[in-house]
Write the structure tokens for this entry.
Amino acid sequence: MSAMKKIYTSALLLAAALAIAVNVTVPNAVGASPSNGAIGSTVADFKLPDADGKEHALSSLKGKHGVVLIFVSTGCPVSNAYNERMEKLAQEYKARGVAVVGINANAAETLDAIKQHSAQQKFSFPVLKDKGNVVADQLDAKVTPEAYFLDASMKLVYRGRIDNSRNGDSISATELRDAIEAVLAGKPVEKAEALAFGCSIKRAS
Amino acid sequence: MKRTLFLVLFFSAALCMIGGGAVVRARQKTIAPKKEVATPASEKPKVTEIKEAGLKTLLAESVGRSRPLLVNFWATWCTPCREEFPDLVKIRESHTDEQLDFVTVSLDEPSEIATSVPAFLAEMRAGRMPAYLLNAADPEAAIGLVDKDWRGELPATFLFDRAGQLAFKHMGRVQPAQLQSVIEGVLAAKTPPAPAAQSAAQATSPASASLAQLLAYDASAPLDIKTIGTERQGGVTVEDITFQGVGETIAAYVVRPAEGAGPFAGVLFVHWFAPPDPTSNRTQYLDEAKALARRGTVSLLVSTFWSDSERYKARRWQTDFENSVTQGKNLRRALDVLAARPGVDARRLALVGHDYGAMFGSLVAAVDARPKAYVLIAGTARFADWYLFGSSSGKPAGEALDAYRKQLAAIDPVGVIGAARGAFFFQFGEADKYTPRDNFISYYMAAPTPKRIATYPSDHDMSAGIIRHDRTVWIAEQLGLPPVP
């Protein structure tokens, strides 16, 4: 220590006198987590390119009553098990004012692979490339498939799985549909979050 | 003349030894012989189907168990899961069944329980890990049973300590060195007292119960180690590195033997605060680290919040407590870095700290079981002893001063060192202007055994040859290095 400590001895006496300290209150060591992807938060508009390289603003793709963003993968078997269900969802809700937009944030999946995959699956909805997983980070998306439903005002009202059955043969909970139906009926969303096992999004390093 | 002085120093040092506790040679842990583990590829491992209740039982059994539990969630369709599996098998192989339970939980379709799942496990020779397949009617409920922060991504790996507390989690492919280091940490932790004794202890000592919680850090955050430069001097390599601490990048030197693959002992050096002295930073112990490297040791010499005297002066007393807690966590991150250096034997780690370095070393000793030996040089008993002499926001007064001291008391060396584990060597200079003798003795007295103290006719800098020699000899004894002549 430097010369600052010279007047140390008197301070020590004081310290000794005050040293009987019990019941120490310890502040919460864990900081508040950022509100990324928090239910009720408004998602800022963003622009991402589709597989042809054409940029789209989220606001331009959004339907009258909202938009469902689904993080997808060309190679993840879980994501692929939902291909038909995602397409069905897109067709069904397009007429009712809710758009479906796929987002591919996997660092290793190229624009060509996405284009080919969408063509094979005959997706009628766009799949955008989230290079550098900027949007995935912003929404805290971790797996494919993972859905985010934003209402007409871009407020996040549901995030999580599409339904509870990976292979589609034992669906007993359809949280994403329930959330969309609730918003279309002007009701609050009962279950705003539901998790499911999936492939982790392989982020750019 | 010089030689005479050293002789005098030597004798006075010898006379000043105060035998507080016996110096006990650190226990050399021996690894029990491994069981025969080879699983013939033709013999498919058994995979047990479980539902949510089964998973709950599996995890509940980890409470108060005799050994830590490692759980890996995976699936054959998950590429990173398949890629990491050989690393997991290696980790299983490096610990005995008595040390660690390691189970795998597959999220494949139930129809694959007798086909692709056991086939893959057989290929991986994973027969020693009990294998389960989770057939959950509600995946969400199952995910929620394990960890609230898990969003279901695979692979996912969780380590529960003997008390059933989640000690580590990682989503995505594990870094084997990091996982090994965390396992060593959990294995080195004392067996918790029986539940009844534990609640009694908590009732009488609320502060110590919360200390571990206070110093808890995110061991799964990437260390992001970057090498800035490397220099070879004689048989020693000095690397200039940075790693990710809590909210800041920390500069450090790694001093290691230039040749050989280990196993090496590891020493974490935490420097003093003595501006404008040129050694008031991570350079202080470069020479001692080089001497240890020649005896088969890898040292990490870290920067701290007092390395830069301007930063130290710009402190505000209002944030001293928080800042100190962060510093404690950063030293735990430094131990992660040290333990993960190639060739380092995570069971032979020591910490050397001088001045503030000793005080923060005590804090680490109270919560982190990894270092087995500590050299604590000329620290004071309480942080407020020194903190109050320099702070850009002046000093607290009256009730604020009371509150300030009370808050710091939760982490003060004299208060926390009683909860520490390991062997301790205290070094003190009788001519120290900053640390009164009685103050230092009270700090020493509070430490658990085995411990030893030596005082020298030195001032606060504690850099005379005999003082350095003493600690090198002691470290060599504790870490099983070749004896120092």
